[in-house]
Specification:
mainly alpha; 0% strand; single chain; 4 helices; 72 residues
């Protein structure tokens, strides 16, 4: 179970899932599966579940930079 939680909370996974769900939501609105209000409600649910991924994920995973003058 902890492996699944670790996978779903990884930044890259959250960013990918958020992008996918956003696109699916747009298609569902266009096809009439859900209304715009319902899509907004589900987007809010996804934001709550994924910890505000749009605000807290980068487009790519980067390695931390080290200062050339650091003692490490």
């Amino acid at each position: 179970m902890s492996t699944i939680v670790t996978f779903l909370t990884a930044e890259a996974t959250r960013a990918w899932l958020y992008r996918l769900l956003t696109a699916v939501g747009a298609v569902f609105i266009y096809r009439g599966v859900v209304s715009a209000e319902e899509a907004a409600m589900w987007a809010g649910v996804c934001l709550a579940l994924f910890g505000l991924p749009a605000l807290n994920t980068s487009a790519k995973v980067t390695k931390p930079e080290t200062d050339e003058h650091s003692l490490e």
